[in-house]
Amino acid sequence: MGTYMKQNRTFRLVLISIFTAIIILQNFVPFLGNIQIGAFSLTLMHITVIIVAIALGPLDGAIIGGIWGVITFIRAFTFPSSPIAPIIFTNPLISILPRILIGVVAGYTFLALRKTKLFEVGSMSIAALLGALTNTVLVLGLTYVFFRLHFIIFTSMNLNADQVLPFLLGIVFTNGIFEAAAAVVIAPTIARILIHISQKN
After folding, report:
1. What's the first-to-final CA gap in the chain, in angstroms?
2. Fold exhibited by the domain 9-200
3. How confident is the model at residue 4, as a pLDDT?
4. Which of 30, 111, 177, 178 has the fewest C-beta atoms under 10 angstroms from its C-beta?
């Protein structure tokens, strides 16, 4: 597993179960996982994935991210989290892949940085930042790539093709900055606690 917790399988499995429950609750309990603003929502669920990726490793982070992605994908068909979810998140490359890669990027970034002279919190903060940006950039970037499949969104907002990129970049510099800042502040704090508890065990 390549993490602080690789020798404590029971503790690791308990944490994975707990975080699986948390990510499920965040998907269905209002304001626990998303803060709705107009047609879009600011997500907090990436923080849960990043915490797992840092504390348990990239594989476990990818698993929790994948669970979030699958729920997002299913909800897009059955119980959409926002008005645009049925159009964007019915594509698994947008709903699932970026969530998995949050755990991969955050986890491997932390593993790489903790081998350097960078202090632990700094390594966690950078890992959290890159994990959050992975979600934002990939979701919006893939949305732009598949724009022609999702043109209904932008037509309904009176946007033409030339306006799509500035529109998405606007989200990156609003939602993305907030989500990244929240991850940098919250994820290292909780991940450090979990790592220290594991070391004591």
Report:
1. 17
2. Arp2/3 complex 21 kDa subunit ARPC3 (1.10.1760)
3. 47
4. 30
The stretch 76-98 carries a mean pLDDT of 86
Cα four-point dihedral sign 174, 181, 140, 85: negative
Residue whose C-alpha is closest to residue 61's, from 12, 95, 113, 114? 12
> Taking the alpha carbons of 104, 14, 28, 186 in that order, is the dihedral positive or negative?
negative
Beta bridge partners of 35: 42
Q: What tens digit of pLDDT does each residue of 129-173 get? A: 999 999 988 988 888 777 755 565 555 555 555 555 566 666 656
Helix ranges (H only) for the chain are: 9-28, 45-56, 58-78, 85-88, 92-95, 97-113, 120-145, 151-156, 161-171, 177-200
Report how far residue 86's alpha carbon sits from residue 80's, in angstroms, rounded to the nearest whole number.
6
Q: Which single residue is written with the structure tokens 């990239």?
A: 58
What is the domain partition of the chain in residue ranges? 9-200
